[in-house]
Amino acid sequence: MDGIVGMGMVAIVAVVLLYGLHRAVSVLAQPLTVLPAQSGWIPQEHALSRYHVRWYLASIVFLAFDVEMLFMYPWAIVVAEKGISAVIEMFLFLGALLVAVAWAWREGAFRWV
Amino acid sequence: MGMTAIIAKLAVRAVRVLIVEVPGQWLTRVELEDQMLRRGWRRAWAPADADVLAVCGTPGPELTPLVDRLWEQMPGPRVRANMCSSSTVSSALNDAATLYVDTDQHAKDARERAQEPQIPHDDMDHSGHGSHDHSGMEDSGHDHMSHSGHDGMDHDNHTGMHHNGHGEIDHSGADHMNHSGNDSMDHDEVDHDSHADMHHNGDDHMDHSGHNGHGGMDHSGLEDSGHDHSGHGGMDHSGHGGMDMSPGGIPLAQGGPDRDGLEMDVLHLPLGPVLAYWPAGLVLDCTLQGDVVVDSEASIVDGRDHEHSLHVFAPDLRAALLCDNVMALLALAGADDLAARARQARDCLLRGDHTAALDRLERLIRTIRRSWLLRWSLQGVLVLEQVDLHRHSLPASCRGDAYDRMLRTLARIQAAVGGAGPMIDDDVSWQVLPNLVTGLELATLRLAVASVNLRLHPTTQGGKA
Amino acid sequence: MTDSGLVTVSAGWAVVAGAILCSLAVFAIALDTGLTARAQGARGGWTTIAGRFARLLRQRRRTTVAADTMLWRAGGVGMFIGAFFMVAVIPLGQWTLADLDVGVVWLNTIDVLVWALVWLTGWGANSTYSLIGGYRFLAHGLAYELPLMFALVAPAIAAGSLNVGAVAAAQDDDLWFVVWMPVAFLIYLIGVMGFSVWGPFAAAVATDITGGAGTELSAVDRLVFHAGRYLFLAAGAAFSVPLFLGGGAGPWLPDWTWVLIKTLAVLAVLVWSRRKIPLMRPDRFMTIGWTLLLPAIVVQDLVVSVLVVWKG
């Protein structure tokens, strides 16, 4: 654990050093406020908005699988001692999920244009 | 030598250049790219990353404010390098390098420049996009303002309606919006029915077409005003209410209906004119929902200035120009090495070295044919079948997808350089673009635009070299 | 603490580990610069790298109108810091900074963090190109992340442990995992390019959207964000060594040298592959990820677990 905290400290010190160095050598330390880049046009509205996430269906399928990983990691440690029954159980489960993926694919969940 | 001087000396080896290409000045840009390579300078994609603003050519009245605004967006140290023709590129870059290392000057500039952007407050739509929407309308003869029944209408009146238009519509009474012939709007040529038609057909379209806020209220106003005066009041208020909810002087995004029946915010993003690997001078005003372009409108900056230029049509230049297009497509597809080879072939052609050019072209084509990943990446991008060609009156060379078109273009270059005679000029008119690309995802759209050889103005980009 | 047989060194050695990580990233940048220069027939070399560093230090920082500054900077700085956390559990020969029982899951944790970091960088700038870039990364993530997780599980199944040292030790008197789980190794490398926003997976910071999530970054803010991408690439390459390439195993040289040599080799392959593979557009890769990579890696895991039980 100490090692991880140590790495974090090293990284933070490195970032602080970089920002400090920048303050020392940049033409001016205070940031400039500008308009967002749009080939020089003034933006018609703020970009921060309800972005239309076209792949929302894919993200739902992802969630189903992602939760499954909670079982997969502990299972990986014990599979050798539990034997073939653990393998069958896990891969039947995964197989069912893959069937769901195949169905989602057929429904066009992974296409969004 | 002090610390700052050492830093500056190192930094000048890695300068990033934001390139502004005035339409017709592609040869200047080519020379600039060559000089940049020799110095180890690289291209910046956005002003945030740029140290030098290189303006190839003399910007016209519409491009000038955009270039100025890009200049305002550069963080500094910033240097502006104007190069009116390819012969001045070298000296302009030398000057830029000298200016770039002058740290004191840059510190002074940083302190003295405007620290906040200037956003015109009175009317966003007009000052920001108005000016280029308007040019678009003039050039393209508003095909995007409505699909039907519009031709009888005088363009100037129409633009007038849109620009100072608001004021007029709001304040000078309902009377003049009456469809049954009124003088103040000069609608005489538009008969009642077709005008009504325009509102109803144009309805969706105007909603998307880059007049957000004002677009919305505009035609609700128009529809109402056709019948009574009181509609105006409502329109006026909604309009200004919108303005008040504008943090930093920029309105918030508004919702728009979606194909899936959801209401999601739409964003307006003009692509071009200052955009890497994008046809110079072209502006495609996109309305985005997510990363999908749901509507677009094309125009050309300073379109009128170039009408008088001569139509120079040297075969080598044309082959080099097509090579340049292929380079852009490859670069956008992320095939940097292949793009570099296309660039080398282009430069050989411009030097008149046919043997070297043929050799490079041959190797390029061979590698492209072998790369199944590149084929996978470009396949299915803007597929045009015979019916589509017919519908949009496109030349036969556009048939197929982006991959087909790229190989076909390369084969044509090869044939022309090999002595098969001059190439036919069958470039595609830019006006047709919105019909082709609306509905595509943004990355696909960039590839699609790069995959057709566009004629941007009557000159082609032959230049006067 | 565990049966990995590793020596946990004191936290002070984190400075050395950090320096090694940074050197690896500089190596990656140098190699990429050199290869690019060669392809273009341009000037390149070491001075260019120092020049790039100096240029960004000298540049002025900027912020956009009504930007979400805190989230924006958190994203950029987080990219830099995240990679340091990732390498904390990688053993260098027999030494390690943190002998975590769940080291493999730790890698997974940090790499999922990148989703947030890249997205925040894209979101915070209040710029359309930047926002599109941020969301592009999430779309990529949806497609590469699951195959990556299953690829991480494969060595863990074979070793019967999630401890990185134990996974490396399990290959000691045996075949390296890369030999009998090549699909997992390949998909792991794809995942590394994914969470480093690198090469074919750089669509989120691509040219066509003027640099995407990084469009509005300048000066040191840009430096930490893009340096973070290279650091992650280096960290991912280093992690592949204990997971698939036998850790410090190798003749003649001490084991820590072998870890570094193997890391450099993997890193070089990752850097070089950018030149051969075009951009994977998120909308295209979504289908590939779910219909090709995912079934392939599940079959790989099945093969691995059956073999383990068989030998078991």
Summarize the structure.
With 113 residues, chain A is mostly helical.
Strand-helix topology:
The complex is a heterotrimer of chains A (113), B (465) and C (312).
Chain A: H1 2-25, E1 32-34, H2 56-82, H3 84-106
Chain B: H1 3-11, E1 16-21, H2 26-39, E2 42-43, E3 52-56, H3 63-73, E4 79-83, H4 89-100, H5 103-112, H6 124-140, H7 155-163, H8 165-171, H9 192-208, H10 214-227, H11 230-244, E5 254-257, E6 263-271, E7 282-289, E8 292-300, H12 315-332, H13 336-351, H14 354-370, H15 372-378, H16 386-391, H17 402-417, E9 428-429, H18 433-437, H19 442-451, E10 454-455
Parallel strand pairs in B: 1-2, 1-3, 3-4, 9-10
Antiparallel strand pairs in B: 5-6, 6-7, 7-8
Helix pairs in contact in B: 6-7, 7-8, 9-10, 10-11, 12-13, 12-17, 12-19, 13-14, 14-17, 17-19
Chain C: E1 7-8, H1 14-40, H2 46-58, E2 62-64, H3 69-87, E3 95-96, H4 103-124, H5 128-159, H6 164-169, H7 177-180, H8 182-195, H9 219-244, H10 255-273, H11 282-311
Parallel strand pairs in C: 1-3
EC number (chain A): 7.1.1.-
Protein name (chain A): NADH-quinone oxidoreductase subunit
Enzyme class (chain A): translocase
Explain what you see:
- The complex is a heterotrimer of chains A (113), B (465) and C (312).
- Chain A is mainly alpha-helical.
- Chain A has one domain.
- Chain A contains three helices and one strand.
- In chain A, helix 2 runs antiparallel to helix 3.
- The model of chain A has no long low-confidence stretch (mean pLDDT 91).
- By secondary structure, chain B is α/β, with parallel strands linked by helices.
- In chain B, helix 13 packs antiparallel against helix 14.
- The longest helix of chain B has 18 residues.
- The C terminus of chain B is likely disordered.
- By secondary structure, chain C is an all-alpha fold.
- Chain C contains eleven helices and three strands, in the order E-H-H-E-H-E-H-H-H-H-H-H-H-H.
- In chain C, strands 1-3 form a two-stranded parallel sheet.
- Chain C is globular and about 60 Å long.
- The relative contact order of chain C is 0.16.
- The mean pLDDT of chain C is 93.
- The interface between A and C is large, with 69 and 83 residues.
- Strand 1 of chain A pairs parallel with strand 2 of chain C, so a sheet runs across the interface.
